[in-house]
Design brief:
81% of the residues lie in helices and 0% in strands. Helix 1 packs parallel to helix 3 and helix 2 runs antiparallel to helix 3. It has one domain: Monooxygenase (Up-down Bundle). It is elongated, with a radius of gyration of 16 Å. The chain is mainly alpha-helical.
């Protein structure tokens, strides 16, 4: 069954929304290195979810779902960077 144009538009709108919603926090965290208000378990679970959605988009048969893959690739990378900064800050704070 062929997908409708609405299906594709929804995927791309969701992709843009996810990236625009995620990037400001990631950029702010990278610039300021402040992670006091970030909940580690929440951010970890969001990263795991984004990574799994990225894999789902990549492994979809017969074709890759590019909007799903690329969006979650960007959010996975941002999550990993913010998560690393958060862990670094938590480790240094305990010293």
């Amino acid at each position: 069954m062929e997908q409708s144009w609405l299906y594709d538009i929804c995927g791309y709108v969701a992709s843009v929304g996810m990236i625009l919603g995620y990037l400001p926090q990631a950029i702010r965290t990278m610039r300021t290195r402040k992670t006091d208000d970030i909940a580690l378990p929440t951010f970890l679970m969001m990263a795991v979810g984004a990574f799994c959605f990225m894999l789902q988009g990549l492994l979809h048969n017969p074709d890759i779902i590019w909007s799903l893959f690329l969006t979650n690739l960007v959010t996975s990378v941002c999550s990993a960077v913010v998560f690393a900064i958060k862990l670094h800050n938590e480790f240094l704070r305990k010293k």
